[in-house]
TrEMBL record:
Organism of origin: Sporolactobacillus kofuensis
NCBIfam families: rrf2_super
UniProt cross-references to InterPro entries, sorted A to Z: Tscrpt_reg_Rrf2, WH-like_DNA-bd_sf, WH_DNA-bd_sf
Pfam families per UniProt: Rrf2 (PF02082)
Protein name: RrF2 family transcriptional regulator
Length: 158
């Protein structure tokens, strides 16, 4: 299974928003600069997070992006589905039925194989659903730290 790079970027964006001092909104150019991606690409990722209800957008001089939910309410499954979509990754073409002439035996075996893939996908999503953004932050001890991402570059001497 291949996962889009946007999933990793979305996790980082959400972690930045979660650790922003006073939960102040962060402008897209600040996020894109820190992640070293183009602002237009970052906006596409953040747009998906907004549509999924994970991020809020406010357009004003002091606006930007902020979390729409607490980190404990955002699972890795939420993030994965915001970027990858909710549809199944398994899209069978039923080739065995065409190659081996559809009969009960071929259809039964094809269904067995498909069921293995569906079960693996279910287990994958169940596991993602058990891990929240808070788990990411606590595993790195960030729940105790807050950053002013707007000014972080000057704080780091960059």
């Amino acid at each position: 299974m291949k996962m889009k790079s946007g999933v990793e970027q979305a996790i980082c964006i959400l972690a930045m928003l979660a650790t922003q001092v006073n939960q102040d909104p962060i402008k897209s150019f600040v996020l894109s600069e820190r992640l070293k991606v183009s602002d237009s690409f970052l906006k596409k990722i953040v747009r998906r997070l907004v549509v999924a209800g994970l991020v809020e957008s406010s357009a004003s001089k002091e606006g930007g992006f902020s979390l729409a939910k607490s980190p404990s309410e955002i699972t890795m499954l939420d993030i994965f589905e915001a970027i990858e979509g909710k549809q199944s990754a398994i899209q069978p073409l039923h080739l065995a039925e065409h190659v081996f002439f559809a009969n009960d035996s071929v259809i039964t075996k094809e269904n067995e194989v498909l069921n293995i893939f569906y079960e693996a996908e279910r287990l994958f999503k169940d596991k993602l659903n058990q891990f929240s953004l808070t788990d990411v932050l606590t595993s790195h001890d960030y729940e105790k730290k807050m950053f002013d991402w707007k000014n972080i570059m000057s704080e780091l001497g960059q």
